[in-house]
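Lab notebook: predicted structure, single chain.

Context: the supervisor wants predicted structures on file for every construct in the current expression panel, including those that have not yet been purified. This is the next one on the list. No modifications to the sequence; it matches the entry in the shared construct table.
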Amino acid sequence: MRAVLLISHGSRYQKTVDEIAILSNALKERKAADIVEFAFLELAAPSIPEGIDICAEKGATEILILLNFLNAGRHVDVDIPDIIEESQKKHPGVSIRISKPVGQHDRIVDLFLDIIKSS
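Prediction complete. Output recorded below exactly as produced.
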């Protein structure tokens, strides 16, 4: 069973947390995967390890970590892979992969052009 775990940096600002929950729910409604959850690197709950645990408890055999980060950086290149590696030890029967950051997607320029045109 496939899961998508949408992860963001995290914030103490509740509006930010709410926006991620709304985005996660939109992915659920659009049937992005059998299981869709969200988690945060820091400052908000659930944490990434907790999110992975939730997906595994719901029966996930594979989890795509969907990075809601614009670009590469220490969190994307080091911190998150380290967290995933530790969680992988806890769930050896679950395949866990990490997406590229949003800013590396082929259609990011089109998205920015759309924002420019509509602003």
